[in-house]
Specification:
178 residues, alpha/beta, Rossmann fold, seven-stranded mixed beta sheet
């Protein structure tokens, strides 16, 4: 039995968005002030000793955790957005989807050489977006020493795919299955 209060806050919704998927809903963490604070505190603790200079969050829920963490740590925040969502000049990275491809972008002046970025998102599943985000940040000359997630779905292999790119991958909670 696991009596982790953070784990207990995450709601599982069966068969969403399609049959066989066990959707891990983190909105229940966000609506609980103590739970949200605990998540940010644990993410901050995971970053201790990594000397990061900025936090980058992946759209959309990575913005929530990443911005709160950046504020808590006194660091800047970089939003990693889907294609054509940023108003200024951007650099981007394409990545494969099950059927086709997608693209993520950052402003071309958001990061630069010497920045040490912690990548943050709510959940890592297959790792495609996190790997692309790491590659995008590195293409701008930064170092991405660590990535932190609230939830890992290890059966989907995303954390291992991201580790193969070099960052330390830290998740607060792991759930079996899809």
């Amino acid at each position: 039995m696991n009596d982790d209060p953070l784990r207990a806050l995450i709601r599982t919704i069966p068969d969403f968005p399609k049959p066989g998927i066990q959707f891990r809903d983190i909105t229940t963490v966000l609506r609980d002030p103590a739970g949200f604070a605990l998540a940010i505190d644990r993410m901050k603790a995971a970053l201790a000793g990594h000397d990061v200079t900025m936090i980058a969050g992946i759209e959309a829920r990575g913005f929530i955790f990443g911005a709160a963490l950046a504020r808590e740590m006194g660091l800047g925040f970089v939003p990693i957005r889907k294609k054509d969502k940023l108003p200024g000049r951007t650099i981007g990275m394409n990545y494969a989807l099950e059927y086709g491809q997608d693209r993520i972008e950052i402003h071309d002046d958001a990061v630069g050489p010497g920045d040490r970025i912690a990548l943050v998102d709510d959940l890592i599943a297959t790792g495609g977006t996190a790997v692309a985000a790491t590659q995008l940040l590195r293409s701008a000359g930064t170092d991405v020493p660590i990535a932190v997630f609230l939830v890992d779905l290890p059966d989907l292999g995303g954390a291992e795919r991201l580790r193969a790119q070099g960052p330390i991958v830290h998740s607060l909670i792991a759930f079996e299955g899809h």
